[in-house]
Design goal:
Largest sheet: 7 strands, mixed
Number of strands: 7
Shape: globular
Strand content: 25-35%
CATH superfamily: Gcn5-related N-acetyltransferase (GNAT)
Distance between the termini: 21 Å
CATH class: Alpha Beta
Number of helices: 7
Oligomer: single chain
Helix content: 25-40%
Order of helices and strands: EHHHHEEEHEHEEH
Radius of gyration: 16 Å
């Protein structure tokens, strides 16, 4: 299930992010504060407020990912641009306990369909470290195409890291990303 982040998610968000520090750190932005200090109820409230503000003005589409009744990740389309571009940047993370079970790819597919449908975007971009094979495989299976290599693109895990730029256009998935996910889902 996808839904907006709620105040009541704070405890679960802190727990999942704390338990997944080693799993998430290689892909997360560098920060001056230690992981534990960035993953407190107060940090969650600040992140949620900022995400809600951006969502209210149409600059972001933040979603909590729930599986079997518990918070297991987030998917966000951020830096939404309207006008002639109608584009956004896709980001996501998932609890290692459910990784490899299709939860993240299903959540991303649903968000893509929402972004291309009711939101009216035309292009989604996902920038992924070359070493992140699982994330690359996720977007490729949904139809994203690699378009670029961004050298020293983002400050991730303590250094400037290269990223591969992937993009999905609305016309790349005429039946929707969910339909593509369903065709590719393991039996």
């Amino acid at each position: 299930m996808l839904r907006p982040l709620e105040r009541s998610d704070a405890r679960d968000w802190v727990r999942v992010r704390t338990e997944n520090e080693a799993w998430l750190t290689p892909w997360e932005p560098s920060a001056p504060l230690p992981w534990g200090d960035r993953h407190t109820p107060a940090a969650f409230r600040a992140m949620r407020r900022a995400a809600s503000r951006r969502a209210r003005v149409g600059m972001s589409l933040p979603f909590a990912v729930h599986h079997e009744g518990r918070l297991v990740g987030q998917v966000t389309v951020d830096n939404v641009v309207r006008g002639a571009l109608r584009s956004g940047h896709l980001g996501y993370w998932i609890d290692s306990a459910v990784a490899g079970r299709g939860v993240a790819s299903l959540a991303v597919a649903l968000v893509c369909d929402h972004a291309f449908g009711p939101v009216g975007l035309h292009r989604l971009q996902a920038d992924i470290r070359p070493e992140n094979r699982a994330s690359r495989r996720l977007v490729e299976r949904l139809g994203f195409r690699q378009e670029a290599l961004f050298r020293s693109y983002l400050d991730i895990d303590g250094g400037w890291r290269d990223h591969l730029g992937y993009a999905l256009l609305a016309e790349d998935v005429p039946g929707g990303a969910l339909a593509r996910w369903e065709r590719r889902a393991p039996l």
